[in-house]
Write the structure tokens for this entry.
Amino acid sequence: MAGSKQNFEASLAKLEKIVEQLETEELGLEESLRLFEEGIKVSKKCEESLKIAELKVKKLLEDGKTLVNFDHDQSKPE
């Protein structure tokens, strides 16, 4: 789980940097589009991580008596 937190945190930091670049730098059209596309990809990655975390929380709240192992690799669907 620590790995997924690091991946989420790194992705979020990358997204913040992209947004800052788009807002503050005078970029050409091509560079702006490239950064925007990269930002969309990173945003989707963050959204997926948040959905997985939400499902884990729901599962834990629904079944508080059962121990659930969430340490498996989340990038590969089961």
Observations:
- Residues 29-62 form the longest helix (34 residues).
- The mean pLDDT is 84.
